[in-house]
Design a protein that fits this description.
Layout: H1 24-30, H2 52-56, E1 63-68, H3 74-83, H4 90-103, E2 111-114, H5 119-125, H6 129-141, E3 144-145, E4 150-152, H7 164-171, E5 175-177, E6 185-193, H8 197-208, E7 213-221
């Protein structure tokens, strides 16, 4: 008999390969055909050249890769991973991101770095959702992943409760880099990028410490 792990997380139909987690039909439905700016990841007129926003004021990272907008059913899977104690979803969600990366291959990074959680939040959740996304990605891509590369050194208010201006203030001096990154190409991995304040702060920290480049990989990009 098939167990729940042999069924698609979305349509509940049997999977040809149980470890995929999401069937090929649902996987196609989760992909986006919307053209996005290759730098900020927001909808744009071209997916080859930076949008007007980035030409006026570019983010500190050079490229952002995302699976889709923060909308159902993808957002439901992300919420279950993040808030419902279901780290087993990470493998299926990481595969979605891997497929997206294969559609538009980015520069191969030297390191993957997960966006860190404050230690108390990590303890309450039992895991960092960005960490459990990074682990299979690093294995599949053959890229080194160092879980303790960055630390959140002080608690911050929950980002989605704050305005864009308050988000920037909230994150100032909240992170510390624990490894040498001079000359390395880095890929930051997170579940959701909204205003980009968190990954921007981390990107600046990496570049200030000598990183050659920073790109951002996420499941969802939204405003």
């Amino acid at each position: 008999m098939l167990t729940a792990h042999g069924l698609c997380w979305l349509c509940k139909m049997p999977l040809a390969l149980a470890h995929w987690g999401i069937c090929s039909r649902c996987t196609r439905a989760l992909r986006t055909d919307v053209m996005r700016c290759p730098q900020c990841g927001l909808p744009a007129g071209s997916d080859t050249f930076p949008c007007g926003r980035c030409l006026q004021k570019a983010p500190p990272w050079y490229r952002l890769v995302t699976v889709n907008d923060y909308a159902a059913p993808l957002s439901t899977l992300v919420q279950n991973l993040k808030f419902s104690g279901k780290p087993e979803l990470a493998l299926a969600l990481s595969r979605l991101l891997l497929l997206r990366l294969k559609q538009t291959p980015p520069r191969r990074p030297d390191r993957l770095i997960a966006v860190p959680l404050w230690q108390r939040r990590h303890w309450r959740r039992g895991y960092n959702q960005a960490d459990v996304l990074c682990r299979p990605l690093a294995r599949w891509l053959g890229v080194r992943y160092q879980p303790e590369a960055m630390r959140r050194i002080r608690p911050t208010a929950t980002q989605h409760q704050l305005s864009a201006r308050r988000r920037k203030q909230n994150l100032k001096n909240a992170f510390r880099l624990e490894i040498a990154v001079t000359g390395l190409h880095i890929a930051l991995v997170d579940d959701v990028v909204t205003t980009g304040s968190t990954v921007a702060e981390l990107s600046r920290l990496l570049l200030q410490n000598g990183a050659a480049s920073v790109q951002v990989w996420c499941l969802c990009r939204t405003l």
